[in-house]
Amino acid sequence: MEEKKTLFSAVQPSGVMTLGNYLGAIKNWKSMIDDYDCIYSIADLHTLTVKQVPADLRAHTYELAALYIACGLDPEKCVLFVQSHVPAHAELTWILNTMTYPGELQRMTQFKDKSLKHADNVNMGLMDYPVLMAADILLYNTEVVPVGIDQKQHLEIARDLAVRFNNRYSETFKVPEPYIGKVGAKIMSLQDPTKKMSKSDENANAFISLDDDRDAIIRKFRRAVTDSDGRIIAAEDKPGITNLLSIYGAVTGKTIAEAEKEFEGKGYGDFKSAVGETVADLIGPIREEKDRILKDKEFLDGVFRSGAEKAERIANKTLAKVYRKVGLVQRMR
Ligand code: TYM
Asked: Full-prediction pTM beyond 0.90?
């Protein structure tokens, strides 16, 4: 039998997940679970690059785990673990740091955006974020990384570092490929459709959280900013309608063309309500299941324990190889 390729991805537990995270990432993760060896992480170390309330970070970590499972990521079928539970992530980051240049990190779009947004806390971690992400990926001999478009640039760094290390010290890392879904890879804000939908948006009407109830979801879609031309078609000068069409397409599995056809001749009001209803139907059961799982902390701790053990076995092997190649003396046991 052909060996399955390894797939790795992660989400930061920096608040409640948005519809963008779901459609851009998790939805694809679930569909790939049978075809790949899947490793899904909760990137808690990454969240520390912006200020967090410690108790909230802990709560968000459990919530994200419950949400992963509620979204169909069965911990028996994949490795599901918390990044900080596997020290090899921080350790490989150090080695990779010694071969990464500040200029490479300073030009990252996310670093520039977050530096402006958190001007009072432009820390080394914020700049080093893509190197930790590269370590996450490279530790597992990952070949495929399903992410939204916003993470593509970070994946380039991971690829560059893999190649750089291999060239300097001989073949060690696989060079990972991004997997970016055809629909839903960039869900935009409902209030400013030229901006990415983000959970850190100050305006709660701009994003759909997976914790929003039915009324809130429908209300937010009704208030979604569009244009006034009245035609339900995807076009560059119609970012609001285009965004709603791609949300509808990503949720229902229909193409944009099919969605356009379905709403031909309808008004914006009806269209927005239909998208809202469809999204509410999707999120309702996930939210209920997440709340049910979240009540069982013992179960989640068990998932974390066995996930970390499984992840560590792979990660430590890679790290040992890396340490040996760069010339560190092996620790005696
Ligand atoms: P994060 O937590 O910002 O987002 C998690 C995933 O959701 C995708 N995403 C979106 N997709 C479509 N439309 C949107 N509006 C939208 N917003 C977010 C992101 O592209 C991402 O796939 N650095 C990563 C987490 C991470 C990681 C990794 C990912 C840490 N280590 C290793 C892959 C591999 C992040 O901050 O994602």
From this structure: yes
